[in-house]
Amino acid sequence: MPIVARDASLLILRGADVLEFVDGLSTNLVKDLKVGEHVQTVFTDRNAKIIDLCTCLQRDSFVALIGHNRNRERLLNHLNTRILTSDVTISDATESNDFFLDISGIKKEFDSEITSVKISESEVLLVASKGTGPEIDMSKKEWDEWRIENLRPDVGHEITESFHPFSCGLSALVHTNKGCYIGQEILARMRSRGTFGRELKRLKNGDCKPAFVTTEGDTHCMAIVRPSNPESH
Amino acid sequence: MDCGTCETAPAVVITKPEPVTVSLTITEKATSMLADAFDGDDSHALLVGVSSGGCSGYMYDLQIVENTDQDVQELNVDGFRVLVPNATSHLLNGIEIDFVEKMMGGGFKINNPNADSTCGCGESFS
C-alpha cells in the first residue's frame, strides 16, 4: 500500500460566493461543483504563471481548498486581496490535519477521520485529522521514481511559479470555455495558436541539459524542454 | 479531515484596504448616455463597483440601483447620484467613466489611473 506524506495546506472557504470566487481565479470549471464533488484547478497570476495547484472539494457547508504548504502564503495573499465585497471567509485548517497520497490505485475504506479524494486513476489524496493518518511506506526517493515513471509533475519541482500550466503537464486542468479568470487571456492565446513553449518530458539521464531537469531519478529524469529539441533553451 | 468548525482552524485575517474618498469624472458622452438611462428619475443611482475575476483580476461592475446594502460613499457628479462601495474605493479613486461606440455596439468604459494593466476586452484590470 504505497502511501507518501504530503506537505499540503487546507483552506476552508465559506460563504455564498465561494464557488464563483474560486472559479474566477483559477483555470478549471469550479462553479458547478455539487456537494461531494471535487475538481483540481490551478491558480495563476496575470502572466499565467502558477500560484498553486489545488484540489477543490465541495462539502455540505464549505469548500475545502487543498493546496501545497510552500505556496500557502502566496495563495492566501492572492485570495485575500480579491475578496472585496464577495461573501467569502477563509480559515486555515492546515495545522490540524495531515496529508497523504495513496498511489496504489486500489479503492479502500479509510477511517472516518480521513477524507479521501480520488484525484486520478492511481492517486487518492488523503486528509486526516492530526495524528490519525495511515502509515507512510514510501520514501521521497521512491515517490520521485514513481513520478518520473508516470510523468507526474509535483509542486516544487515542475509545478512552480516559473511555469504556466501547459509547460508542466497540467493542460487537462485548463478548461477550454469556462470564461474569464486571471491568466486566461494568455493561456487561451497559447492554445488557439498551438504554441505552448516548453513541455514536460521523461528523458534518459544525460539527454538534456541539467538546467532543464526538474526531477532526477536513477536512470531517467523529468525535464521541461522545447518539444523539438531537449538540448535547446 | 478537521475542517475547523470546532475552532481549531484560525480564521484568516482579511486585509481590507482603508477606504479613500473617491473623486471621479464622467465624460460628456457618458453623461448623455446616463441621462437617457435615468430618464430624469433621481431616485436611482449609478453604483460603480469592482468584483474579483476577469482576465486581469478585477472586473468593473456598473449598475443602476435604487438602494444598496453595501457600505458606500455617495457622490454627486454632474447631477447624477453615484455610489462607490468603500471596500473597493481604493481601486476607483480618480477614474473617468466614458462611453465608447464599438463595432459590436456601445458601452461604458472606465479609464482607471490605478490600473497597471487592462485585459483585451477592457472589462478587467489589475
Characterise this structure.
- The complex is a heterodimer of chains A (233) and B (126).
- In chain A, 15% of the residues lie in helices and 30% in strands.
- With 233 residues, chain A is an alpha+beta fold.
- A five-stranded antiparallel β-sheet of chain A has the order 3-4-5-2-6.
- Chain A starts with a strand and ends in an 8-residue tail after the last strand.
- With 126 residues, chain B is mainly beta.
- The relative contact order of chain B is 0.23.
- The model of chain B has no long low-confidence stretch (mean pLDDT 84).
- The chains are: A alpha+beta (233), B mainly beta (126).
- Chains A and B meet through strand 2, strand 6 and strand 9 of A and strand 2 and strand 3 of B.
Write the layout of secondary structure elements.
The complex is a heterodimer of chains A (233) and B (126).
Chain A: E1 3-6, E2 8-14, H1 18-23, E3 38-44, E4 50-58, E5 63-68, H2 72-80, E6 89-92, E7 97-102, E8 114-118, E9 124-129, H3 140-150, H4 184-193, E10 199-204, E11 213-216, E12 220-225
Antiparallel strand pairs in A: 1-7, 2-5, 2-6, 3-4, 4-5, 7-9, 8-9, 10-12, 11-12
Chain B: E1 25-26, H1 28-38, E2 45-53, E3 57-65, E4 72-77, E5 80-85, H2 89-92, E6 96-100, E7 107-111, E8 124-125
Parallel strand pairs in B: 1-6, 2-5
Antiparallel strand pairs in B: 2-3, 3-8, 4-5, 6-7
